[in-house]
Design goal:
Number of helices: 12
Length: 435
Amino acid sequence: MKSLLLIFCIAWTYIAFGQTSYFPPINGTWETTDPNSLGWCTDEIQPLYQYLDTTNSKGFIVLKDGKIVLEKYFGNFTQDSSWYWASAGKSLTAFAVGIAQQKGLLSIDNPVSNYLGDGWTSCTKAQEEKITVRHLLMMSSGLDDNTSNPFCNEPSCLTYKAEPGTRWAYNTGVYSLLIKIIETITGQDYNLFISKNIGIPTGMKGLWISAQGELYITKVQTMARFGLLILNHGVWANNDILQDSNYFQAMVNTSQPMNQAYGFLWWLNGKLTFMVPGLPIQLPGSLVPNAPQDAYFAMGKYGQIICIVPSQNLVVIRMGDDPGNNEQLVSPIYLDKIFTYLNKIICNPASVQSSKKVESVVIYPNPVINSIIWANPNNLSIKTIEFYNAHGQLLQTIQPKRQFADVSSFKPGTYIALFKDQNHVLIGQSQFIKI
């Protein structure tokens, strides 16, 4: 009986969380999979490598089911060389904040002042106390991003622009306060916190340095280890490193209504609109149109990329120098081009699960009083619905038996509904107003 229960638990973990069957050893050789065995079109690999080489890439890896299918280094860069993550490191910090909350060291719904004391900005005390750790994760602190030094996190650089939660603006200086919070509440260097809680259990080896909003320097395979950890919802082999599933889901789903393509320091594909650093407008369409719609990304300057594709059990890693493009859009545009090559390589539809398009689900009436009804003209296989408020807080998860939900307990305001299938893959979304 106990054996049957164990088998059931293992199977349920795999189905519910998409856990891969392979994790590389902490020290040792990472297993590989021959792309021919997956039915991939291997004659298309060289054109991808040539494109990566001509766009100043240093290292590139593709994982399928946890194993390396493609791995290539360019120029003098080798498997043992290191490079910086740039802003892709923000996504690692989001994960670290989740661990700190899991340990009871902080609550992301508490004011930042609880951890840094009063006067950490140039705002009034009343304005300052409204800014929570969650706002820093969502890039919606309301602090002005138009500063002479975008990496500054001193009070003189942190000035009031808007009410927290009402404006999305990419602000590296404000983000770096999350690292300061972790160091303050733990009394230890951020390197030690990352190494102890993430690096040692997964084999990730790197160095954080305090320069331009903090930089993480690692080998390419360390970046891939983190991607594999995220693909498995914070689980590494039998080690559940981030156990808070609500936090994880909030991290990799739309966190606020201003920028649908942003979670907690993670970029999201398949949304109706997106915003990018430095442009205070919503742009139509998916962030990376040629990538699967359920993909999400850690992205940094000059094309430092960690791409997670749950529906295909893929992780895509690129490290390198400036590929050449508009700086504000360089990583998503560059990744989109990479996927035009990758899609030709992954030419056998049977080798991967098909990615699902994220539909815009119509909710009515809208505005809502007590309950909602949603249309399902495309017969989406909806198994769960998650409701988030405008601050990115997960309020309720339901498993609907009908196209109806009671939201009478919600306070007046704007809400986001995320519709997911049996594998927890996002297949539909909607926004509604409760009055």
